[in-house]
């Protein structure tokens, strides 16, 4: 890190991802992160009080990218049924890309996610909130018949019904030859159920 650059939490998180990719979660240390940044490990600890806090923050940052990329479907224009299909399709594509595009980092984050269940729970709640927003719009548009005061419960059911296509525990199945057909069938089933 150049002397003129300010050490920020964001720079530390970027460096932590790099270190995790290089060494994996079992061997990566705060000293390694500090070395990449050209600072003392004490400087890192001024931003993140413990190694666990740093690992939690990097996990949260990684998961937040998904929420951000899905936001246009949740908050965008257009009929809610198309937005829901777009949201589910985009979530599946994002998860597949992460699993296939950077398998080392994906494996690392699998470990970190296991360590940070509260972070994962908050992440899932954000995703469920996005689905609930789409369902509420669909109800208002007359497309979905989900109970007016129960959008969150219905959204959670949609999230769980499509688990095979976004839960990294199923990542090995995402390259199966019939996975696209299976995904389309589940999304169609969900759409029909929401209209019933």
Structural class: mainly alpha
- Terminal residue distance: 58 Å
Major pleated sheet:
none
Q: How much of the sequence is in beta strands?
A: under 5%
**Uncertain runs with pLDDT below 50, 5 residues or more?**
none
Globular, elongated, flat, extended or rod-shaped: what is the shape? elongated
- Based on CA atoms alone, the radius of gyration comes out at 19 Å
Please tell me the overall pLDDT: 90
What brief labels describe this structure?
single chain, mainly alpha
Give the SSE map.
Layout: H1 9-23, H2 30-37, H3 41-47, H4 51-75, H5 80-101, H6 103-115, H7 117-140, H8 151-161, H9 179-195
Describe what is shown at a glance:
The protein has 196 residues and is mainly α. Helix content is 72%, strand content 0%. It is built from 9 helices and no strands.
How would you describe this protein?
The protein has 196 residues and is an all-alpha fold. The protein contains nine helices and no strands. The longest helix is centred in the N-terminal third of the chain and has 25 residues, at 51-75. The chain is elongated, with a radius of gyration of 19 Å. The termini are far apart.
């Amino acid at each position: 890190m150049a002397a003129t650059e300010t050490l920020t939490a964001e720079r530390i998180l970027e460096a932590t991802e790099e270190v995790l990719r290089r060494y994996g979660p079992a061997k990566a240390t705060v000293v390694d992160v500090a070395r990449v940044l050209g600072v003392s490990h004490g400087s890192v600890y001024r931003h993140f009080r413990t190694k666990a806090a740093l690992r939690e923050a990097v996990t949260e940052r990684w998961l937040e990218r998904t929420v951000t990329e899905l936001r246009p479907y949740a908050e965008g224009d257009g009929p809610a049924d198309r937005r829901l299909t777009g949201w589910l399709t985009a979530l599946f594509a994002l998860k597949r890309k992460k699993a296939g595009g950077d398998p080392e980092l994906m494996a690392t984050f699998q470990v970190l996610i296991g360590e940070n269940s509260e972070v994962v729970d908050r992440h899932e709640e954000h995703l469920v909130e996005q689905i609930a927003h789409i369902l509420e719009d669909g109800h208002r548009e007359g497309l979905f018949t989900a109970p007016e005061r129960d959008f969150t419960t219905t959204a959670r059911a949609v999230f769980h019904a499509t688990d095979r296509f976004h839960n990294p525990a199923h990542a090995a199945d995402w390259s199966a030859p019939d996975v696209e057909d299976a995904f389309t069938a589940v999304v169609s089933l969900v759409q029909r159920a929401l209209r019933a």
